[in-house]
Design goal:
single chain; alpha/beta; Rossmann fold; 2 domains; seven-stranded mixed sheet; 9 helices; 7 strands; about 20% strand; globular
């Protein structure tokens, strides 16, 4: 994306601001984080002050489908595993296009189903549905749909690559798979224990007990089941190369673009 010092950059769906803090340290650009969650914005501001980056980082509450920014405000925009939650990809991409200056670059890590995914295959559909329900996603689209959505709103796609498909020795989904052979550190063993079948069963029953005695809200066990089902389908989708959480697109708004 070639981010430079003092560029004004938008982080769409910024969470608590982790990527933004690293990016501004590395590039010295100014980043505005957009988030619809008050608690996450509060934490993002806390960390920005803690690490003395609040002169470069700011956060705005808002809806990425209806951004409260003037047209052509930002030199660059990025989104990391966030825009998958948009009800329609063209909707969020068009807003990003609107607030980006002509010639500006948009970089996105998108959750998509790969070219191997077949909508007519019942097993494939089941995996996609499990990801949607467990992760609060309106619709899991194929890679080609996301690419076309970028083009439909006016972007020129300059680069794309599935960064989950680079023949890594340890797959991206290993923290969710609960398999000892992928452990590299002591912390990995704890992660694998929690995500193993036994670990998930213990966690689910513990949440259920907490719900019964009033230490957890009603419905907590049901939510835990949904999250576990999502993890199972994320792993299965990864193993069968049907799903990627890191489809990288680099797209540019044409220099000649006008509102």
């Amino acid at each position: 994306m070639n981010l430079q010092e003092n560029m004004k950059v938008l982080d769409v769906g910024c969470g608590v601001g982790g990527p933004g803090r690293e990016i501004t340290r590395f590039t010295d650009c100014e980043i505005v984080g957009l988030n619809n969650n008050d608690y996450q914005i509060e934490r993002a501001n806390h960390y920005a002050k803690k690490y003395k980056l609040d002169h470069k980082l700011s956060y705005v509450k808002g809806d990425f489908m209806q951004m409260d920014f003037e047209p052509e405000t930002f030199d660059a925009v990025y989104a990391i595993e966030a825009t998958v939650h948009a009800p329609v990809l063209e909707g969020v991409y068009s807003e990003i296009y609107r607030v980006l200056k002509p010639g500006g670059v948009f970089g996105v890590y998108e959750w998509v189903m790969t070219d191997e995914y077949d909508e007519n295959n019942e097993e494939h559909r089941k995996i996609a549905y499990g990801i949607e329900v467990g992760d609060g996603i309106p619709k899991m689209y194929k890679r080609e749909v996301a690419e076309q959505a970028l083009k439909n709103v006016g972007f020129e796609v300059e680069y794309e690559r599935d960064l989950a498909d680079v023949n890594d020795e340890i797959p991206w989904y290993y923290p969710l798979a609960g398999e000892l052979q992928n452990c590299q550190t002591f912390g990995d063993y704890w992660t694998v224990l929690r995500t193993s079948k036994v670990g998930r069963l213990v966690l689910t029953e513990l949440v259920g007990l907490m719900e019964k005695v009033g230490l957890a809200p009603q419905g907590s066990k049901q939510v835990t089941h949904a999250l576990e089902d999502a993890a199972v389908n994320l792993v299965e989708g990864g193993r069968k190369k049907l799903f990627t959480p890191m489809m990288l697109f680099i797209a540019r708004k044409p220099e000649t673009a006008s509102e």
